[in-house]
TrEMBL record, chain A:
Organism of origin: Parazoarcus communis
UniProt-listed Pfam families: Fer2 (PF00111)
CDD domains: fer2 (cd00207)
Protein name (database record): Ferredoxin
Residues covered by the 2Fe-2S ferredoxin-type domain: 2-95
Highest taxon, organism lineage: Bacteria
A GO term, aspect molecular function: 2 iron, 2 sulfur cluster binding
Length: 95, 429
């Protein structure tokens, strides 16, 4: 199975997950400080900062792009309920 | 024109030169937004501001009161004079008459905060001419001729889209729900109405308190203004010493007693309840474990000996929370839920949380409490501790480990960990 690694910087936890996993599927299980509202890419509550490895995330959907814009997101921001990790190692933190 | 300060049917009330109250009184209301009570009803304050170029309408009223609103509005201006409609937030108690107003004044532009744009579709179901809708920011200035409207973005006071509207020439702040309260008194001005101080505080506690940090940011914007008049969306218009009410918000948003640990130490609260002493012994072990971590002040409370209110005050200031509950009839016990369902009054998002408890055969309590903590947006960084009946020394050591680890998280001293979710049983290991 293709795998990927994600480090949640705020709590110092690194996880190994199957490629294609959305961050929302793991971040709550391990108690990272990412928080969710709608859970479906609408409200922007789950905005996070990609510290390194953004190239390992699937490119944002039209919906995600729109919500990021509406919430004045910077280039390093993604929605944790939408972003899928495809491989490699991604480091994220809340924000 | 009406006598200043006295509301009469169908008549507007002048609150400043060419500025009129055109709201509605709802004296019989006793419950608001499900979460608030009121002994004095409420008012929906809407306003009209006249300049040499046109009239701006600031907010409207709840739908059932549209007729009363329009009667007042049309006796101080003609529909074709309205050039601007401003909504300080989109909650239905202030936007109920919006669809009718948009129709009556088709030439008027609608001024909203950016986040309000996203909600507008959910509110006005007919299609709206996009060209009429203007998203404002702190640089926007709406010139009415001789006076102008500016906007302060005050998000989450108490909706994401909340803003205040400022008329510099008059020192007049249309503050929306901020500085408002549910207190209906037809004398309208704070120096004429009955004593509404408890309503003012109560409104803050129930509506604004969950957003305390946003309140403090908004006060930084509001305090420097040379305020002569504050015109909120509910309750008395503050013309006598309006700065006192701003100061009161600052007090209400500050901790009551300075926290001795404030700044230097992190705080961890251990709440427990126990019928036979098993969960209590676990609580003591959690506390002892946490106390071993330098820089953390640990406090422990038996939920059987207190009411949610004061505990909520403690939680608002704390960095970490641990809850101990036995499992009784397949659930955590009511005092735990009573506290956990009272936390919408304060911000708990991002605090660290954990759970533990003794059980007999099924042990649901710990998992249910953890789910609730996650639902409240706490971080629950490690699985809680469940112990069957009487805890052994080894199991108590597991409780101490829970306390220690949470405390280490609070001071950011937790050792980096790796979890392999592609391995079987990753989280239970
Ligand atoms: C005090 C208050 C707080 C609210 N908080 C939220 C919220 O956190 N998230 C949300 O999606 N909607 C929130 N809303 C919006 C309501 O869910 C929305 O107005 C809904 O349409 C009300 O439904 P009802 O007509 O059945 O009462 C809030 C509304 C009020 C009055
Ligand atoms: S949780 Fe709402 S956008 Fe992700
Ligand atoms: Fe409101
Ligand atoms: Fe309101």
């Amino acid at each position: 199975m293709p795998k990927a690694q994600v480090t949640f910087e705020d709590i110092g936890v690194t996880v190994t997950v199957p490629a294609g996993t959305r961050l929302i599927e793991v971040s709550e299980k391990i108690g990272a400080g990412l928080t969710y509202g709608c859970r479906e890419g609408e409200c922007g509550t789950c905005m996070m900062k990609i510290v390194t490895g953004s190239e390992h995330l699937a490119t944002p959907s039209v919906l995600e792009d729109k919500v990021l814009k509406e919430n004045y997101a910077g280039v390093a921001n993604r929605l944790a309920c939408q972003a899928q990790v495809l491989g490699g190692h991604v480091v994220v933190r809340p924000g | 024109m009406s006598r200043a300060g006295a509301v009469r049917p169908g008549e507007p009330v002048a609150i400043a030169p060419d500025v009129f109250w055109v709201g509605a009184l709802d004296p019989d209301l006793r419950q608001f937004d499900i979460i608030l009570r009121t002994a004095n009803g409420t008012s929906y304050n809407a306003y009209a501001v006249r300049g040499s170029k046109g009239v701006a309408v600031i907010d409207t009223v709840k739908a059932e009161f549209a007729e009363e609103f329009f009667a007042r509005l049309w006796s101080c201006c003609r529909p074709d004079e309205i050039c601007a409609i401003v909504l300080n937030h989109l909650e239905p108690d202030h936007t109920g008459a919006l669809p009718a107003l948009l129709k009556a004044a088709p030439q008027a532009s609608l001024y909203l905060s950016c986040p309000a744009l996203k909600m507008l579709k959910g509110l006005v179901k007919e299609s709206l001419d996009e060209a009429r809708i203007i998203a404002v920011d702190e640089d926007t200035r709406v010139d009415l001729g001789g006076r102008s409207l500016r906007f302060l973005y005050t998000p989450y006071l108490h909706w994401p889209d909340t803003q205040c509207t400022w008329v510099e020439e008059e020192g007049l702040l249309f503050s929306g729900d901020v500085f408002g309260c549910h207190f209906c008194d037809s004398r309208l001005f704070n120096d004429s109405v009955g004593d509404f101080r408890f309503s003012f505080d109560y409104y803050y506690q129930h509506i604004m308190r969950p957003f305390r940090e946003h309140v403090l940011t908004a006060l930084d914007l509001i305090e420097p203004l040379a305020l002569r008049l504050v015109a909120p969306a509910h309750g008395p218009i503050l013309r006598d010493a309006p700065a006192n009410y701003v100061r009161r918000y600052r007090q209400l948003a500050s901790p009551l007693l300075a926290n001795e640990a404030g700044g230097r130490e992190k705080t961890l609260l251990v709440f427990y309840i126990s019928a036979y002493g098993n969960t209590e012994r676990m609580a003591q072990a959690v506390r002892n474990g946490a106390e071993g971590v330098e820089g953390v002040r640990v406090s422990m409370y038996d939920l059987a000996g207190g009411d949610p209110g004061p505990f909520v005050d403690l939680i608002e200031e704390a960095d970490g929370l641990v809850f101990g509950s036995p499992t009784i009839n397949g659930d955590a016990v009511k005092p735990v839920w009573d506290l956990l369902s009272s936390l919408t009054l304060v911000k708990v998002k991002g605090k660290f949380g954990g759970a533990f408890g003794s059980y007999g055969w099924s042990g649901e309590a710990v998992g249910l409490v953890e789910d609730r903590l996650r639902g409240l947006k706490l971080r629950v960084p490690r699985p809680g501790v469940k112990v069957k009946l009487i805890p052994t020394d080894e199991e108590l050591e597991g409780c101490a480990e829970l306390g220690r680890e949470l405390a280490e998280h609070l001071v950011g001293r937790v050792a980096p960990r790796h979890i392999d979710f592609t391995a079987p049983n990753a989280l239970t290991a």
